[in-house]
Structures are given as C-alpha cells and as structure tokens.
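If you are new to this repository, start here. Below is one unmodified record pulled from the training split, so you can see the exact layout before writing a loader.
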Amino acid sequence: MSALVRWFAVAVLATVLAACSLVHSDNYGTPQSVRPNFAGRTFLFHNYNGGGRFAEYYAPDGTAYAWGASDRVRRGEWRIGSDDALGNTVCSRYEPYKYNPVTGVDGAKWSCELASMFHNYAMDSAAGDVFGLTKRGRMPFNLRYEEGRDIEKIAARLPAAP
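And here is the target side for that same chain:
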C-alpha cells in the first residue's frame, strides 16, 4: 500500500470517527442515565406532515401532556426505552384515543424516536411546565398555526394557569 493511499485511509477514518463523536450522548448509557435530559421539560415541535406546531411536557413522574392541533390538553405517559441496535428512545402514548393526531399512530401504542433525534426535531425546549399543561384541560388558543418558534414568547401570550 502506497503512503498516499495509507494517508487517505487514515484521513477518511479520522473524518468518520469525528462525525461519530457528534452523535448526541442521549443514545448512550442506560435509559436511567439519560432520563434527566427529558424529565421536567417542555418541548416545542413542528410536524411537517400537516400537523403544525405542538408542545409536549414530560413530567418527572412519567406523565406526558400534549397541546397542538386543538385547544385540548391531552394526557398520556412517556418513558425512555432502549433499542439494542440504535440506542435509547423517547416514547410517548396518549390516553384512550383511537388516534394520536400529532404522530398519526394509534394512541394506545407507544410512539418512539431516537433520543438523539428527538433533540433535533425539537424547535425549542425549556425547563418546567412552561405552558401550565398539567393544570389546564383546555388552552386559550390552538397551537397548530402558531408562528412562534420560541417557547417563552408563546408562553407570554397565555393567561396564568389556574
């Protein structure tokens, strides 16, 4: 093998290893070790399949709350799962709805994303129940067509939670 080919192989390997180091750390470790990165946080998303904006709050006790295409707050549950081939996953499912309008999945089934991709999909996130979803059954407006990409700006439009 010539020195140029060997140098090229080393350069390619170094590039691949550098790219691998950029993979989010939430894919590694135990589900218990990555859970604190999600528990007690509000996430804002945009569903590009026509669902518009939606928000989820993951309470530390495993309860999930979603607000999006309607003014109704949906209650469900969340967990960190593990896929042996891919790593940790963030999973949610919402109470006895036949259809989850955000994911397009049967509401009784777990809908999961890779933990590292979850952060990529989120437009914004913040510590705490920023929108007061745990205290509300209905919201004063529909989040679906909301223009804001910033949780704090959307939260500023909301009246205080009861």
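Two things worth knowing about this chain: The chain is about 20% helix and 30% strand. The radius of gyration is 19 Å.
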